[in-house]
Amino acid sequence: MQTELEAKFLEVDPTALREKLTALGASLAYPERLMRRKVFDFPDGRLQKQGAWIRVRDEGDRVTVSYKQLLNRSLYGTKEITVTVNDFAETCALLETIGLKERAHQETKREKWLC
Known about the structure:
This protein is an alpha+beta fold. It has a single domain (2-109), classed as Hypothetical Protein Pfu-838710-001 (Beta Barrel). Helix content is 21%, strand content 48%. A six-stranded antiparallel β-sheet has the order 1-5-4-3-2-6. The radius of gyration is 16 Å and the shape is globular. The two termini are 27 Å apart. The relative contact order is 0.28.
């Protein structure tokens, strides 16, 4: 499994941050976009009991399905296996058809910068 590194920054002024990134020579890989995701588990919650879940995410330019497991709350504590799929709704329907239940639906905005 891969190790996921993720950070959240609170109370950030997006305009000021974009200006700073541009001044430092960073380039915008893609502008802010809406990403949606659904999290699935078995009806008995067996994945959650192991600190795990299945996630389907529409990233705007691709759709992925991942098995994720939180082993600990350290920087390297989340492991994942991810594959690219063709369709968000159809992938969710597939998971529901084999008995998984939707546990959460979330939407976030993201943009990507390269240094």
